């Protein structure tokens, strides 16, 4: 009994001590909690504020009252190192960061460049997007994931090169397939998936893809579609499109309402997106 009591006391005491080590650094829209390395915490805070402005500008979202201000600020937790991050969060070994959308928290660790360059803007974009559109409308999963990836600004040129290559090789999923596919259910990377699509010339085509390739292609097309809409028609129109979905419109209705002279349904969207890909200078 004494040993059991000692173990329980030790675990509880260790957690309390660790919790007391958190130091707080406040910004306009974020509160950074860190255990050590204040310099990196300041870098995360300042970078997050830059990302915040970029993402809001790219997505055309209005700056409404109290948005991520005061007690609504997003919390970012920085663990001292990768091992302590994994131990505290239970994430897989490859994970470099995570987000809790319910609590509006983002978690990483000190001196992680991947967290700073990629995970931070990605997860922030998810939070901003969902703050704007909510969870009630029929928001396609590809749109949510595309918005988050588009926020990773450093990857945009690389993404355009890869998607252009897929277009040139006639390896694109159809938009109809993208709408139906819940990529979260693809768990076997080695299994072969058969997808029907069309070629550049509009002829029926069948793709045989491993689970790994299917997932990669899904995310690649998602971010490319979001980039196409924003770059071609502007952030304000994209914001209007998202609002239509938020307010209960089906995707074809939202497209017609937002882009009446150009895109009235998924077929129009796919046709114009493919034309955009054909003109990419890569």
Report on the structure:
Helix 5 packs across helix 8. 29% of the residues are buried. The chain is an alpha/beta fold. It contains 11 helices and 7 strands. The radius of gyration is 22 Å and the shape is globular. Strand 6 (192-198) and strand 7 (204-210) form a beta hairpin. It has a 5-stranded mixed sheet with strand order 1-2-3-5-4. Mean pLDDT is 89; it is low at 2-18.
Question: Top keywords for this entry?
Answer:
single chain, Glutaredoxin, 2 domains, disordered N terminus, 282 residues, alpha/beta, two-stranded antiparallel ribbon, 13% strand
Q: What does the average pLDDT come to?
A: 89
SS strand fraction? 5-15%
| CA(first)-CA(last) distance | 70 Å
Tell me the number of structural domains: 2
Overall form: globular
Largest sheet, if any?
5 strands, mixed
In helices, the fraction of residues equals 40-55%
Given the structure, what is the number of helices? 11
Protein topology:
Elements: H1 2-20, E1 23-26, E2 30-34, H2 38-59, E3 74-79, H3 82-89, E4 98-100, E5 105-109, H4 113-133, H5 141-150, H6 156-168, H7 175-180, E6 192-198, E7 204-210, H8 211-233, H9 235-246, H10 251-258, H11 266-278
Helix pairs in contact: 2-4, 4-5, 5-8, 6-8, 8-9, 9-10
Quick overview:
The chain has 282 residues and is α/β, with parallel strands linked by helices.
